[in-house]
Amino acid sequence: MNIEAVKSIYFFEMARTRRTLLQSVVSPVISTSLYFIVFGAAIGERIQQIDGVSYGAFITPGLMMLTLLTQCIGNGSFGIYFPKFTGTIYEVLSSPISMLEIVLGYVGAAATKGLMIGTIILITASLFVDLSIAHPFAMIFFFVLTAVTFSLFGFIIGIWAKDFEQLNLIPMLVVPPLVFLGGSFYSVDMLPPFWRAISHFNPVLYLISGFRWSFFEISDVNPLASAVIILAFLGICMAVLTWIFRTGYRLRN
Amino acid sequence: MASIVSVSNLSKTYASGFEALKGVSLEIEEGEILALLGPNGAGKTTLISIICGIVNPSGGEVTVNGHDVVRDFRQTRSMIGLVPQELTTDAFETVWNTVSFSRGLHGKKPDPAHIEKVLKDLSLWSKKDNMLRELSGGMKRRVLIAKALSHEPRVLFLDEPTAGVDVSLRKSMWEVVERLRASGVTIILTTHYIEEAEEIADRIAVINGGEILLVEEKDALMTKLGRKQLRVDLAQPLERIPDSLSSYNLTLEDDGQSLIYDYDTSAERTGITALLAALAETGVRLRDLSTRQSSLEDIFVEIVEAGR
């Protein structure tokens, strides 16, 4: 194992976060605060408690997931796409480093950033609403696993993307609808039966539901199903990456 | 001398169907400077990229110091430094950080003293805290060399290292290359400046259309393929070449002011003595004589043209 190389990539990527502190950290905190002001304070006042949880607290896990997914995909994809775009990828490809180590460096940094920002949002949220975490280990399980899985997913997008439009396609056009329609701001029980049934095909619903269960013990779907879905998606991402590394797809071809 | 890089029957066909390498075989000897010459699209960069691990080969085998570049990539890549053709740098990184990053990527522990030496050797020390975007093109080129030297490679690939570099910087870069060679580093360079290859290389390989056309000691190549040209400036211009001189392969230039005679230095007889006697017999008066050795560039063009 080339530990020095993994460390080099990891700290190189983390250094970018330090250089772009405003964009990386302050911006998600401000947007989350705005969500709390709009949905929590302005609209939330008019919404009754959901399953015994105040609306402001209810949306916190969804907001954390929204940011976690967006950040992890964004960081994971940009980390590998940018060297491809500038051409500096030659150096990583010609180094004595395995593909697994490359992933550990880039995905590790992307997941770390996502987790940092998710934690900052949790702290910010606790300033607005009363929060309690019923199952801390389950919460950490969903939190970390989602960060790693979606950083891996972002990494795949970064390898696949040929230009900035493709790079932003999934983070901008696919993820927000899935998150917004995945019960971030409501319980799917509030939907008419048809849309409720449709929602169950949305994988993000399972992530948010499981994560929310770890906070408040309320969920739209069985928490075990949530764990299975996230593990399955992690498995799919790992399988796709294995294929990419075997074939050299868009990296060594 | 023992081979440090051994390329055997290497082929590469890209997904587009383009066949960049067609069964290339090449032995690179330890401690030499090998110049890889070839026109654009000849396969130079593909060959280098496969040896360095950037591109997967379609067939054949490459070993570096006996290790296979695919199977034993850790051993081979830690021995290799690569300076790419394109000026690819992280615009927002400092010189120090980017060179240190390269060392880490190659699995070497941080060694500030070595990085300092490399930067000083390349006259980059005063720029160590500058961001790369603040540097000129020539400076960036030197940073790429510093990155390639950060992990103390045994084999250094320089892909068009002097493209877009001014004359004084080019000279100082060749001084660095000479010092590296003196320290035992094997250097493979591609260049469009053939006079550079002529000046610095020990051996020349010519590649075109994905095939190696020849690999020769530079001096032997110059002698073997080197044609010389005798230029005879005449006191009185000639309208045409006299019949008595028709057996010589002469051409008339400068409105009949000069006769040009091509001859082969390696031939048993150059024919110069006979030609001069024949000129005297014909009554042609000479004003001056000069000879010119064909350059590596002439030889290169000749080989590539012959290969077409």
TrEMBL record, chain A:
Where exactly are the transmembrane stretches of this chain?
21-43, 55-82, 103-125, 137-160, 167-186, 224-245
Q: Where is the ABC transmembrane type-2 domain?
A: 19-248
Domain of life assignment: Bacteria
Grouped into one coarse class, the protein's main location is membrane
Molecular function terms from GO: ABC-type transporter activity
The answer to keyword Secreted applying to this record is: no
Q: Name one GO cellular component term.
A: ATP-binding cassette (ABC) transporter complex
- What family is this protein classified in? Belongs to the ABC-2 integral membrane protein family.
Protein's UniProt name: Transport permease protein
* Organism (species): Sinorhizobium glycinis
From TrEMBL, chain B:
CDD domains named in the record: ABC_DR_subfamily_A
Q: Write down the SUPFAM superfamilies for this protein, in alphabetical order.
A: P-loop containing nucleoside triphosphate hydrolases
Record-annotated ABC transporter domain positions: 5-234
Source organism, top-level taxon: Bacteria
Q: What residue ranges carry the coiled-coil annotation? A: none
An example of a GO molecular function for this protein is: ATP binding
Keyword terms of this UniProt record: ATP-binding, Nucleotide-binding, Transport
Q: Which InterPro entries match?
A: AAA+_ATPase (IPR003593), ABC_transporter-like_ATP-bd (IPR003439), ABC_transporter-like_CS (IPR017871), ABC_transporter_ATP-binding (IPR050763), P-loop_NTPase (IPR027417)
Q: PANTHER family from the entry?
A: ABC TRANSPORTER ATP-BINDING PROTEIN (PTHR42711)
* Sequence similarity: Belongs to the ABC transporter superfamily.
Query: What is the protein's name according to its record?
Result: Multidrug ABC transporter ATP-binding protein
Q: What is the lineage of its organism?
A: Bacteria, Pseudomonadati, Pseudomonadota, Alphaproteobacteria, Hyphomicrobiales
